[in-house]
Amino acid sequence: MANVVVTGGAGFLGSRLARELLAAGSVDVAGGGARPLARVTIVDQSPVPADLAADERVAVIRGDLGDLLDRALAGFASVGLPVVLEFWATGLVPRLPTAVLASGFMVLACLSFTSGVILDSVARGRREFKRLAYLAQPSPPAIETPEMLQRTGGASSRPAGGSNAAA
Questions:
Q1: Would you place residue 167 in the very low, low, confident or very high pLDDT band (cuts 50, 70, 90)?
Q2: What are 50-55's contacts with CB under 8 Å, separation 24+?
Q3: CB neighbours (10 Å) of residue 38?
Q4: Beta-bridge partners for 35
Q5: pLDDT number for residue 120
Q6: Do the Cβ atoms of 78 and 42 come closer than 8 Å?
Q7: N or C: which end of the chain has fewer CB within 10 A?
């Protein structure tokens, strides 16, 4: 069974998408085949159209998605941040599980930073390699036009006889 969240579901595109999903009754998830649709959750600040609100497969969350995410992140800040600050100030950790959680977040942060630095250096190296490959290409031969020959007094810049040897 698949659950789908539609943000902006009360608007033109969101409500049309929700109606199409409900009419189809199933959704193809990442090429894994059609899975039956269990619930469509609509998140929007505006009221949802009546036909969608009447469907028993539709759940409506009224409000801003950013506010919902802010509340979830505030829960993280209230759990992990005070423990880190307490440890920083006193060197003591009041509870072991919280310390494990905080240390897990720090390890995750260090891994994320390290992988970001590596990916950035790889991207810069590839870009530099492309520039060097472009600069390694020889320049095209000069084309002598009649105007150029007039400016130089008729003297050609090419060696006589097509040879590079000096006379």
A1: very low
A2: 51/19, 52/9, 52/15, 52/18, 52/19, 52/22, 55/22
A3: 11
A4: 27
A5: 92
A6: no
A7: C
